[in-house]
Amino acid sequence: MATVDETKSRLLRGVVQDNIDVLQGFKLQHRRRRRYLAKPWWLAGLLLLGSSYLLRPAGVVSTAHTPATTANPAAAAVNLDQTPESAGPLANPRPIDRGTIPLAIKRIVIDPGHGGEPGAISASGVSEKEITLDVALRLRRLLADAPYEVLLTRQTDRLIPLDKRVAFANENKADLFVSIHVNWLEPRSIRALETYYVGPSDDPATLKLASMENKDSGYSMSDYKKILEKIYVDARHDESRALAKTIQTNLYRTLKPINPVLENRGVKSAPFVVLIGTQMPAILVEISCLSNDDEVKLLTKEDYRESIALALLQGIRGYAQSLNGPERKGS
Amino acid sequence: MEESNETLCVGIDLGTSRSSISASNGERHVIDSYVGWPVDMVARKVVKKPVLVGREALDNRSMLDLRRPLERGIMKEGSEKDQEAVQEILRHLINVAGIKQKGKSKSRVRAVVGVPAEAFRVSRQNLRNTMEGIADSVMLVSEPFAVAYGLEALLHALVIDIGAGTADFCVMQGRYPTEEDQRTLPNAGDSIDEQLDKLIRERHPEAQFSIHMIRQWKERWSFVGEPRDRVVISAPVKGKATEIDITNEMRAACESILPPICETMLDLLSKVEPDFQDKVRNNVIVAGGSSLITGLTDAIQKSLLDLGGGRAIVVKDPVFAGSDGSLAIAKDASSADWEKLSL
Questions:
Q1: A329 in any annotated domain
Q2: Looking at the structure, do residues A26 and A118 belong to the same domain, yes or no?
Q3: Torsion angle, CA of A312/A313/A316/A317, rounded to 10 degrees?
Q4: Which residue, A163, A192, A137, is CA-closest to A275?
Q5: Complex-level ipTM
Q6: In a domain, A74, yes or no
Q7: Is the pLDDT of residue A226 over 60?
Q8: Per residue in B79-132, pLDDT tens?
Q9: Fewer CB atoms near the end CB (10 Å): N or C, chain A?
């Protein structure tokens, strides 16, 4: 039987090693003893095929049958360039420095949320679908001067199912996907900005929001959660998070002087269908709250919507510049 | 941080609601995890400080850009102000512990900081980066593990650390816990606040109250099971102070966290090696601010009956159990280990 001191010494070695691993950028997964590590073929398959191919929501019709590649070269490089450590060839992925592979953002898909159906509606009758389309059109105009090709999932007030939006982005081999939404939050006094990237969430409020946005997609929330728990090694997750962070920071920095009571709720992960199915770094941004009358007043002003679009542009450019790639239009 | 005269170890429990520090110089302090900056020059003149931390920030909130920068036990991301606020909290904790941060005689600080059991790698890295300039070396440990280490509950024990942002679980089996031994749930003190807010607003739509009032009521009167007394609070209704009985709402809100906590506990216990399940079941240790909810351990113990019974106890000092445990780790780690984790 080990003494208390011996046990403490063993535990301390574990603490120090765990911290060194974090410091060196190892994924914490290598300490896991999950069942799937005993079946490296399963994980290898997931990584090689690209998460979105396997995770495409039921009913998605995609002609872009490119399972062995991803739209983001970094994602492919990270997934394939693994160093064996302990539990199989792909069990311990090591992140690579983004700077080693200059990447270019060439094509951006902007997704104005809702359409056909209104989405959230304010007490005064302003609908989410109008605001998201207006901001998306403004963003497209602003991006016209930037070296990117911009595609919109909708340009008019029409219903586009979520799976079609996902297929549109994938088929067009977009390098970024930005979905624009407007929140509805209780209590109505809340005036907040938040940006989501793909991942599981245990937050009931986030799950409720994802559930509403994922309406009629065919998957249950518990399905999403289980699936997403397994794709943490996907590099797209880290890239989406970086994009979300840049966009959220720029939005808050731009809008706070105009809207001093605005709350920065930061970036969060959530299982939105449009984020799971897309094969490129993807985010969903909630640009305001239609539940708050003062926010609605601001949203009805052209200047404010223009500021939102400008902040989104700055966020996209900031992310693109962080990749160190040449900027050019088209593929 | 060159020219250090002395080396001090600190254990920090960076909590969503409260943060505590235990230092090797004997100092122990707890503060509210709030930071506020004066909103304008007038406010700056009134509060006489560029930044306020803890209770002082909360009390002067009407004049401040007030931040509660931790969410579910980790730093909010994407918000530079919140990251700055976390730095202010850490700096303040080091300061109130009497540790010199400037000058030739400044101390060399080795800090162990508790994080939620399942905090992501990126969150841990962010926190490490935030500690730069505040400590010389940093270790991050899971909060329930720190509690277990401090109590020397190293073998056949289950620690449940219920804070404001998260409830963290850790099964101790004499080895460094793997991910299977640990869990994090978002069902904790903050979710009780949200639930209580919702329930009172539904039943008393005319009553006026803030989230800060909700938190005060909960800290004073929270309970699960049968009430000992009625919970009657005073809140303005159309500006007039009015007494409102919130006994049922308080009970319902507090009991809302029990099912996920008990379910997770039973699940973790069922995964312990069969030979030792009985021992672990009889050694359930509850810590964290929310462990002070009246009747909570009785309810947890009752749920253990499903597995044949067991024993749950609350730690003697729930507020400092995490930081004391972190301090114990900091003191036990060798200088060579600390060198490896320098900032």
A1: no
A2: no
A3: -150
A4: A163
A5: 0.85
A6: yes
A7: no
A8: 677 788 889 999 999 999 988 767 666 788 999 998 877 666 667 777 888 888
A9: N
User: How far is Cα B102 from Cα A46, in angstroms, rounded to an integer?
Assistant: 52
CATH number at residue A140: 3.40.630.40
Instruction: Look at A69-78, B139-148, B170-179 and tell me which has the smallest mean pLDDT.
Output: A69-78
Highest mean pLDDT among A19-28, A195-204, B266-275: B266-275
Cα B78 to chain centroid, rounded: 22
Give domain status of residue A328, yes or no. no
A-B C-beta contacts closer than 8 Å: 105
Q: Which of A7, A10, A21, A22 has the highest number of chain B CBs within 10 A, making it the mutation to test binding with B?
A: A22
User: What's the pLDDT tens digit per position in A170-216?
Assistant: 889 899 999 999 999 888 889 999 999 987 666 677 777 776 666 65
Is the model more confident about A4 or about A230?
A4
Pairwise CB contact (< 8 Å): B174 & A10: yes
Same domain, A8 and A151: no
Of B80, B152, B197, the CB nearest to A249: B80
- For every residue of A169-210, DSSP letters joined together read HHHTT-SEEEEEEEE--SSTT--EEEEEEES----HHHHHHH
Residues A90 and A132 grouped into a single domain: no
Instruction: Give me Rg for the CA atoms of chain A.
Output: 21
DSSP string for residues in B31-99 = EES-EEEESSHHHHHHH-SS-EETHHHHHTGGGEEEE--EETTEEPSS-HHHHHHHHHHHHHHHHHTT-
The chain-wide mean pLDDT, for chain B, equals 89
Residue A125: pLDDT band (50, 70, 90) is confident
Point out the domain boundary residue: A100, A125, A146: A100
Residue A49 has pLDDT above 50, yes or no: no
CA distance B295 to chain A (A): 25
Mean pLDDT of B36-42: 91
CB contact under 8 A, A14 and B333: no
pLDDT tens per residue across span B201-242: 999 999 999 998 999 999 999 999 999 899 999 999 999 999
Does residue A149 sit in the same domain as residue A274? yes
Test the A interface: residue of B86, B129, B176 with most A CBs within 10 Å: B176
pLDDT computed for residue B300 by the predictor: 95
Which residue of B139, B154, B174 is in closest CB contact with A15?
B139
Judgement on whether residues A86 and A193 belong to the same structural domain of the protein: no
Structural domains of chain B in order of their starting residue, each with its CATH number: 155-187+257-314 (3.30.420.40), 189-255 (3.30.420.40)
Give how far A296 is from chain B: nearest CA, Å: 23
**Residues A131, A89 share a domain:** no
> Strand ranges (DSSP E) for chain A?
107-112, 149-152, 176-183, 192-198, 263-270, 282-289
Q: What tokens appear for B270 in the block? A: 């069922």
Could you tell me the residue range of the domain that residue A12 belongs to? 4-100
At residue B45, the pLDDT reads 92
The nearest CA of chain B is from the CA of A133 a distance in Å of: 25
* Among A100, A117, A149, residue at a domain's last position: A100
Q: Which residues of A touch B (CB under 8 A)?
A: 2, 4, 7-8, 10-20, 22-23, 25-29, 31-34, 187, 195, 202-204, 238, 241, 244-245, 248-249, 252, 264-267
Give residue for tokens 């593929």: A331
Determine the Cα–Cα distance for residues A58 and A148; give it in Å rounded to an integer: 31
Residues A268 and A170 in one domain: yes
Measured between CB atoms, which of A19, A202, A264 is closest to B140? A19
Residue at A307 is within a domain? yes
Report CA Rg, chain B. Answer: 21
Interface contact B79-A28, CB threshold 8 A = no
> Among all residues of chain A, which has the CA nearest to that of B198?
A187
Determine whether the interchain pair A245/B78 forms a contact, defined as Cβ–Cβ distance below 8 Å. Answer: yes
Give yes or no: residues A135 and A269 share one domain: yes
